[in-house]
C-alpha cells in the first residue's frame, strides 16, 4: 500500500529486513530489451533509514548503480549486461529527487528492474513515479491512475516578468 503522496505521485516505502535479502521492489519484470536500444528509467526517491539505493537491471547477469540519496551522486556501478548512467537527478524538495537513468543493454535479454535500499538492518527508502520508456530521450511523467492514457502535449510557460533577453532552445 502507498505510504502517502508527494509531488502528485503515490509513494511506497521499500524495506529490506536483512542484508542477505536482496529482494527490494521489482517495478517491471519479464520485459525483453534488445541490445543497443536506449531506455530511460525515471522515478522519485527519498532516503528513509537508508542513505543509499541500489537500482538493478537483472537478467542473465546484473547491471546496477548505487545512488547516495542525500547528494544524488552515483557511488558505485557495474555493467555486466549493459551501460547504466544517471541522466539527471533533479531536486524536488522535502528530500525528494527525480532520477532519470539511461540504460543501453549490451545483449538482448528478458530483464527485471529492481530497487534495493542499502543499509544495516532494517533498511528503507521511499520510491514513486516509476516510468520506463524506450527512445532517444526521456519524457515527462505521465500519470495513468492505473489505466492507459494518451500523452497530452507538453506545455512550456514563462510566468515571470522579463528582465532582458530570454532564449529558449527546444530539440
Task: Describe what this molecule looks like in 3D.
- By secondary structure, this protein is mostly beta strands.
- 0% of the residues lie in helices and 54% in strands.
- The protein contains no helices and eleven strands.
- The strands form two sheets. It has a six-stranded antiparallel beta sheet, with no helix packed on it. Strands 3-10-5-6-7 form a five-stranded antiparallel beta sheet, with no helix packed on it.
Structure summary:
The chain is an all-beta fold and 171 residues long.
What is the element layout, followed by pairings?
Elements: E1 4-6, E2 9-16, E3 25-33, E4 39-47, E5 52-58, E6 62-68, E7 74-79, E8 82-93, E9 96-105, E10 109-118, E11 123-134
Count of β-strands: 11
What global shape is seen? globular
* Overall mean pLDDT: 78
Residue runs with pLDDT of under 50 for 5 or more positions: none
Strand ordering within the main sheet: 1-2-11-4-9-8
What is the straight-line distance between the termini?
39 Å
Q: Helix share of residues?
A: under 10%
SSE string, helices as H and strands as E? EEEEEEEEEEE
Going by helix content, strand content and strand pairing, the class is: mainly beta
Radius of gyration: 17 Å
Count of individual helical segments: 0
- Sheet-strand content, in percent, reads over 45%
Describe the largest sheet. 6 strands, antiparallel
Amino acid at each position: 500500500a502507498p505510504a502517502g503522496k508527494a509531488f502528485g505521485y503515490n509513494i511506497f516505502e521499500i524495506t529490506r529486513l536483512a542484508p542477505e535479502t536482496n529482494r527490494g521492489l521489482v517495478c517491471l519484470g519479464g520485459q525483453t530489451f534488445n541490445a543497443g536500444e536506449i531506455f530511460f528509467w525515471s522515478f522519485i526517491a527519498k532516503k528513509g533509514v537508508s542513505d543509499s539505493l541500489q537500482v538493478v537491471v537483472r537478467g542473465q547477469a546484473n547491471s546496477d548503480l548505487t545512488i547516495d540519496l542525500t547528494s544524488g551522486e552515483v557511488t558505485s556501478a557495474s555493467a555486466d549486461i549493459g551501460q547504466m548512467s544517471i541522466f539527471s537527478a533533479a531536486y524536488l524538495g522535502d528530500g525528494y529527487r527525480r532520477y532519470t537513468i539511461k540504460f543501453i543493454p549490451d545483449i538482448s535479454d528478458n530483464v527485471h528492474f529492481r530497487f534495493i535500499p542499502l543499509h544495516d538492518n532494517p533498511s528503507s527508502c521511499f520510491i514513486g513515479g516509476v516510468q520506463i520508456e524506450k527512445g532517444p530521450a526521456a519524457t515527462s511523467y505521465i500519470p495513468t491512475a492505473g489505466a492507459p492514457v494518451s500523452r497530452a502535449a507538453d506545455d512550456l510557460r514563462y510566468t515571470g516578468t522579463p528582465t532582458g533577453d530570454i532564449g529558449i532552445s527546444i530539440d
